[in-house]
């Protein structure tokens, strides 16, 4: 099926998505396909589906898959995939395509935390634990507003408090790297959303103010991958 898909056989491509990354679930064969997907992604005229599929698979590597030894053998393929994604991140891309490849870049760099958190910020929601309370806080960034709230099963988001977006030149770490990449790529909506994701929010319960990205990372950051190397800054 991989051989058929090189020639953009849509039936084969659809089959590969279902078998290798159905609704985000990956298995041993998914990991085993990464080297060949890397080769296909570098092939001129083969289409972008291979890079997209490899990004989706790599973004799910933290889930149980039973292929740790196979993952360890994929270091070279992941480095090649990262380089391919970096070359594709050019100014003027469609926003959805740019976001897809930026997320893939983060996955290939071993940063699934921000792979999961990045969105097009039209209706983005993340949940963080309040630093001084017990209940979680919903953080909304999008067309419906940018606020912190308590999510009620029946009432929806209640007690909205506006977010405090970061000042771009004051961003540091991953926030700065991602924001600068979005600006260079002409992705103004993405850059705007990142200032909120890496900004601050007020706890709707106790009134304390906290860094959204800090609390999100504290609750969701996985242990580092053994094969991951921090090339994100150079790549972006």
Report on this model:
This protein is an alpha+beta fold. It has two domains: 2-88, no CATH class; 123-220, no CATH class. Helix content is 49%, strand content 15%. The chain is built from 13 helices and six strands. The strands form two sheets. It has a four-stranded antiparallel sheet. The protein has a two-stranded antiparallel ribbon with strand order 5-6. Strand 2 (136-142) and strand 3 (145-152) form a beta hairpin. Helix 4 runs antiparallel to helix 5 and helix 10 (173-184) runs antiparallel to helix 11. The longest helix is centred in the middle third of the chain and has 14 residues, at 75-88. It is globular. It starts with a helix and ends with a helix. Mean pLDDT is 85; it is low at 226-233.
